[in-house]
Amino acid sequence: MPAEDERWRAVDEYLEGELLPRDEGLEGAVAASEAAGLPSIQVSPLQGKLLHLLVASLGARRALELGLLGGYSTIWIARALAPGGRVVSLELEPRHAEVARSNLARAGVADRVEIRVGPALDTLRTMIADGTEPFDFAFLDADKPRTAEYFEGAMQLVRPGGVIVVDNVVRHLAVLAGDTPDPGTEGMRRFLARVAAEPRARGTVIQTVGRKGYDGFALLRVAGEGPARPPTKGA
Length: 235
Ligand code: SAH
Ligand code: DHB
Ligand code: MG
Description:
Blueprint: H1 3-19, H2 24-35, H3 45-58, E1 62-66, H4 72-78, E2 86-91, H5 94-106, E3 113-117, H6 120-129, E4 135-140, H7 147-157, E5 158-166, H8 183-196, E6 201-210, E7 213-222
Parallel strand pairs: 1-2, 1-4, 2-3, 4-5
Antiparallel strand pairs: 5-7, 6-7
């Protein structure tokens, strides 16, 4: 690993020590996921806190997540929701969902998270067809080749004024460094072209370094001024 990457990790560790109190729910989720053999690709602690702060700043009550894995990012999001809030997290692998359920319970957020197992694109289509209550926030972090399609789905499910965050945008622009294009790279390029052509969203990308190396988050806001609390059905 290049020396620079070591420094990025060391700085992340220093910042975590300063800004993040020890937390059995979050640390337990990482340890149990690793012990269960899940890939260690969850957001970093500081990135998780960024998601948490965005959700809290929005006063979000409903959050959508694509890519649950062991539920690490889910815990950060769930803990920031307004009272009565809910995260709906879409995951392909039943085994990941099983590990996540136990992690979410340990972190005390199981009652705020609904897991839907299956291909995210199918679940998104079902949710759109069912007229699912709009979300205030979405975090797209599933398989990268389909990110453009996930963004289209999220645009139909996130309310005006809502926020969409997309992980691993820069990692998958490796083509810029002359690497062989892969489906993840093509997926991210299609996603960014789709953002540029979408009049209902404004977005930016923040390049990041840290314990996960060199990468980036896309941050998007859906146009308009939706209610901070969409009316609940029947209310
Ligand atoms: N958001 C998590 C990390 C997610 S890793 C965190 O930061 O803690 C990506 C996840 O997406 C994996 O669990 C993988 O199984 C899942 N995934 C891959 N393809 C998928 C698909 N088609 N639909 C739903 N989930 C998918
Ligand atoms: C991978 C996926 C992720 O969502 C991530 O944040 C890092 C790596 C991967 O599939 O390698
Ligand atoms: Mg990711």
